[in-house]
Specification:
The complex is a heterodimer of chains A (283) and B (285). Chain A is an all-alpha fold and 283 residues long. Chain A has a domain of 180 residues: Orthogonal Bundle (MetI-like fold). Chain A has eleven helices and two strands, in the order ααββααααααααα. In chain A, strands 1-2 form a two-stranded antiparallel ribbon. Chain B is mostly helical and 285 residues long. Chain B has a single domain, classed as MetI-like (MetI-like fold, Orthogonal Bundle), CATH 1.10.3720. In chain B, helix 5 packs across helix 7. The chains are: A mainly alpha (283), B mainly alpha (285). The interface between A and B is large, with 89 and 87 residues.
């Protein structure tokens, strides 16, 4: 069924209705979360008790808004910090990986490529526990051998960053490789012919060409880190990133405060996504 | 020049090797070793298969494992069936601007965290939730209805959460199918159904495979959705791993559970790739 093939009206209408229903289903939970952020009640549920901004700006009990809730603000800060570290690391390693697989033919290349893809098919929770187990093996060895306790190897932000990086690096590699493959090598050769050193050629010709993919990978990595739950859950220490902090709250019962945080998250990530789209269109 | 190329190669391969060795390969070997360790006394350990024995010997563990696997397969199939017509519509029926807008709309829910999406379903489905209230208001039911904390709610959450990972690969592969090929199918006397079966589905196969693998993996390894939407009787295997590691502090058994999950997922991914004649490089890379 394509537009150029005549179809009965009924089938076409049913098809469009199905697609419309799909999108309504997709939007429903998010719309509900957003609307109840403004409910003037202790619970994010009906009855509707009137419109309020208190869950954003409120400063008195029982309605303390997001901007006055220290724990949530701190968790957002933690998440941003972790996301920035993971994004920077992933894009750096993703770029070197892309160059490696694009430019060099070496023994074990096929094996390493498959290994590089593997983190995508390992469940996040297994990645988390394997890193947890290995780091505590190392930490115990350091304790027994050197008599020193290495805090970085105990559950905490360093492990969270490494755990998220372990699979987000694969995604960054794929995004950057895809663009590098389309690159016309003769441009680089021209630069070399004109007397540039290989490093200058890469820096002035290839990297600018890759920039849109690198920025795209940076944002994707940041978002994936920001919303990661499974791997983080196993590696988290006392500083909880936002998803973990919200999860703990949600287990205790929910107030519209969580709706307000969620709405801010939606706005934030949509904004980031728009930036990427605008950037890619210009490139 | 050769020495320089050699240096470049070493500099480029070092991060890759460090990453794969320190964060992927060695930790998994360590996990496997830990799962083979049995505590025989205070601070004393022996190598044995006891943890796997516990896993196979305890009906609850084995049952949860199988239930998780079956429900993940089911969630993958449902996601595929729901996503295919939508992806086809976006790729082949919609044109120009509306095509890219619809595609973007599909992506939007996934820019927000899974926690928010799950929370949305909780607000909708719970006893005091929106749907229950609406049903009461419409007079269809007399009292509050609890739609949360059961397997259907988990299934709904899983399908919703992984929809994007099915739609994107499907749209990408379907877009590369030339309209002329479909027209040719009709010209040669094919019906809508036979064109779908003989032309569209075979062409979309790489997308179907990679989408299914990702959705299956995400469902199998999901912790949040089953915990939040599932009830007391709907245990998920990842919850067992979590409780062994964090609550009971029995890392040996938890490691064995983790390894079983890894083996199961690898086995199913391998089987799907084998059955459809695809490779991991082609579907993921």
């Amino acid at each position: 069924m394509i537009p150029s093939i005549p179809q009965s009206r009924l089938i076409r209408a049913a098809y469009i209705a199905y697609v419309a229903a799909f999108f309504a289903w997709l939007a429903l939970p998010l719309a509900v979360v957003a609307v109840f952020a403004f409910n003037d009640s202790q619970f994010p549920s009906l009855p509707w008790k009137g419109f309020t901004w208190a869950w954003f700006f409120g400063s008195e009990r029982p309605m303390i808004g997001v901007f006055h809730e220290r724990a949530i603000l701190r968790a957002i800060g933690t998440s941003v910090f972790v996301g920035a570290c993971v994004a920077a690391l992933s894009v750096a390693v993703g770029t070197t990986n892309a160059f490696l697989f694009n430019r060099y033919r070496f023994r074990l290349r096929g094996l390493l490529y498959v290994l590089m893809l593997l983190p995508l098919v390992i469940p996040g929770i297994v990645l988390g526990i394997s890193i947890l187990v290995f780091s505590s093996t190392l930490a115990n060895a350091a304790w027994d051998g050197l008599g020193r306790d290495i805090q970085a190897l105990r559950p905490g932000l360093v492990l969270v960053i490494l755990g998220q990086f372990s699979f987000i690096a694969t995604i960054a590699t794929l995004v950057i490789s895809a663009r590098l493959q389309k690159f016309d090598r003769s441009l680089e050769e021209a630069a070399l012919n004109l007397g540039a050193t290989p490093l200058t050629a890469v820096r002035t010709i290839t990297l600018p060409y890759l920039a849109p993919a690198m920025i795209g990978a940076l944002v994707v990595a940041f978002l994936m880190s920001f919303e990661n739950f499974n791997t983080t859950l196993m590696l988290v220490g006392s500083d909880a990133p936002l998803t973990i902090a919200m999860f703990d709250r949600l287990k205790e019962g929910s107030t519209p405060l969580l709706n307000a945080v969620s709405l801010l998250l939606m706005l934030g990530s949509s904004l980031l996504a728009l930036v990427v789209i605008a950037f890619q269109r210009r490139a | 020049m050769r020495a320089q190329a050699r240096l470049g190669f070493v500099l480029l391969i070092t991060p890759l090797l460090l990453w794969l060795a320190l964060l992927i390969v060695i930790p998994h070997i360590d996990l496997a070793l830990l799962s083979l360790r049995e505590r025989v006394g205070v601070g004393k350990y022996a190598t044995s298969l006891a943890n796997y024995g516990t896993f196979f010997g305890e009906p609850l563990y084995l049952w949860t494992f199988l239930r998780t696997a079956v429900m993940s397969v089911l969630a993958t199939l449902i996601t595929l069936v729901i996503a295919f017509p939508v992806s086809y519509y976006i790729a082949k029926m919609a044109r120009g601007r509306s095509q890219s807008v619809l595609f973007l709309l599909c992506l939007v829910p996934f820019w927000v965290s899974e926690l928010v999406r799950t929370f949305g379903w909780m607000i909708l489905l719970r006893e005091t939730g929106l749907i229950s209230s609406l049903l009461q208001w419409a007079g269809l039911v007399s009292g509050p209805v609890e739609m949360l904390y059961n397997d259907a709610a988990i299934m709904l959450g899983l399908v919703y959460t992984s929809m994007l990972f099915m739609v994107v690969p499907l749209v990408t592969t379907l877009q590369s199918l030339d309209d002329a090929v479909i027209e040719a199918g009709y010209d040669l006397g094919g019906s809508g159904l036979s064109v779908l079966r003989e032309i569209v589905i075979p062409h979309a196969m790489p997308g179907i495979v990679s989408g299914s693998i990702v959705v299956f993996m995400l469902s199998l390894g999901n912790y949040l959705t089953p915990t939040m939407l599932g009830g007391k009787d709907s245990l998920w295997f990842t919850e067992l791993i979590y409780s062994q590691f964090i609550v009971r502090f029995n890392w040996e058994l938890g490691a064995a559970f983790g390894f079983m999950l890894l083996i199961l997922s690898s086995l199913i991914v391998w089987a799907v790739l084998r059955l459809t004649g695809q490779t991991l490089e082609r579907t993921m890379g």
